Structures are given as structure tokens and as C-alpha cells.
């Protein structure tokens, strides 16, 4: 039975070695058809760290067309091809992850900024741009405390400084330059050396929430005063009723 290309591929993938046809066919017990090998052929695996990415095949109608030096050259060429293909795959994966990151960054409804260790805003999503009125030049030249808080020096409760010191998630309750109140969560970002390279800051506007809570507290106070007044009135009315008969 003639050896089909799929069987040749399985053999090469399993053994991770090149195959010269028809020279090696007999020793391997393979019967190769003329469709697979019209005269002579060389099949070389594309290997990267012992992982087969594909198979590089060269065929000729002439028998004995490939010398040992030709085979050595084809193996070197296959090695370079494998590295190139692997780099393309890695680049595609990186681009895919970048797109996922961009989509996730844009999907966050709270204001989000990324600040480097120099306090410069290197990224800001659309809600942050609208709230803090950030232009393209602001995210490249100005510092976070200048744009967000309208100050000339880092804030006392700076998420960058707190995150760099603790290397953990931080929380601040701050009032912005727009007089709105925010819950600010800072998440340190680490480089390959384990050092903090920046902070991912999330600003959640809680101004309305605080106003509602304040109203509820005020309502509870008024209700308590009302109950107290009713109790006092009852205590006063009881003796007066007895006196007046």
C-alpha cells in the first residue's frame, strides 16, 4: 500500500526528524507513491523548542536530486522558517491581547487613568477624559496632580506614592477640583523586575451617594427628635390631666 502524505506527516511529527525519499523509504518500511515522491523529495520538520509547527517539503522529478549538502541547507532553512513562523504567531497573540486590553479599558464605565512613577498620565479612558477634561497633550506632558487636582505638587494621599510604598491596592476618599467626591482605588503595576512601574487608578464618583446617605441620616435624626418630642409631650400631658381633673 502506498504511503500517503498524511502518514508521512505523522511519521515526521512523531519522530521530529527529516525524511529523504525514496532513499529512506525501504529502511523504514514505507512504500511511497509517485504522487508523493515523483523522483526524490525531502521532508523537514519546522521545529521550535522540540515543538513541530509544520513540515517543509521539497520535491523533484529527478531521482537522487538532493545531495547531503542540499539536505543540510534545507534543514538550516527550515530552522529559520520555523523561527519566523513562531515569531509571527507570537506577534499575532500579542496583538490579540492588546486588542482585548483596549476593549476592556474602554468598557470600564468609571474614570480610569494609568500613571507612571513620574506622576504622568500615560493612559486615560473616555470617562476620565470627560470628567477631568483631559486633552491628548495632557496625557503626554502634564502630571496627574496638575490635571486632576489642580495642584503644583503631589497630593498628601497620592495613590502613586501609597502604591509604591505598600505595593498593594490602596484606597483614598478625595475631593476633586470639580468639587465632586470620589472613591479612588490604586492598583500597582509591576515590571519584569518586580518593581512598581505605575499605578492603575479608578475614580468612582460617590457625590450623589454621599448626599443620599446624608439625607437619610438627617431624616433619621428628625424622626428621633419627633419621637422624643412626642414622649416629652405625653409625659407633660399626664400630670396636667390629673390636675385639671
What does this protein look like?
The protein is of the alpha+beta class and 245 residues long. It has 2 domains: 98 residues, Beta-Lactamase (2-Layer Sandwich), CATH 3.30.450; 99 residues, Beta-Lactamase (2-Layer Sandwich). The chain has 7 helices and 8 strands; from the N terminus they run αβαββαββαααβββα. The chain is elongated, with a radius of gyration of 37 Å. The termini are far apart. The mean pLDDT is 79.
Looking at this protein, list some descriptive labels:
alpha+beta, 245 residues, elongated, 45% helix, five-stranded antiparallel sheet, Beta-Lactamase, three-stranded antiparallel sheet, 2 domains
- Named CATH topology of the largest domain: Beta-Lactamase
Distance between the termini: 124 Å
Q: What is the domain total for the residues?
A: 2
Which strand-content bin applies to the residues? 15-25%
How many separate helices?
A: 7
Q: Give me the CATH architecture of the largest domain, please.
A: 2-Layer Sandwich
Output the radius of gyration.
Answer: 37 Å
Secondary-structure element string: HEHEEHEEHHHEEEH
Largest sheet: 5 strands, antiparallel
What is the residue-mean pLDDT, rounded to a whole number? 79
- Secondary structure: number of strands: 8
What portion of residues is helical?
A: 40-55%
CATH class label of the largest domain = Alpha Beta
Shape: elongated
CATH superfamily descriptor of the largest domain:
PAS domain
Unreliable spans are: none
The secondary structure category is alpha+beta
Give me the side-by-side strand order of the main sheet: 5-4-8-7-6
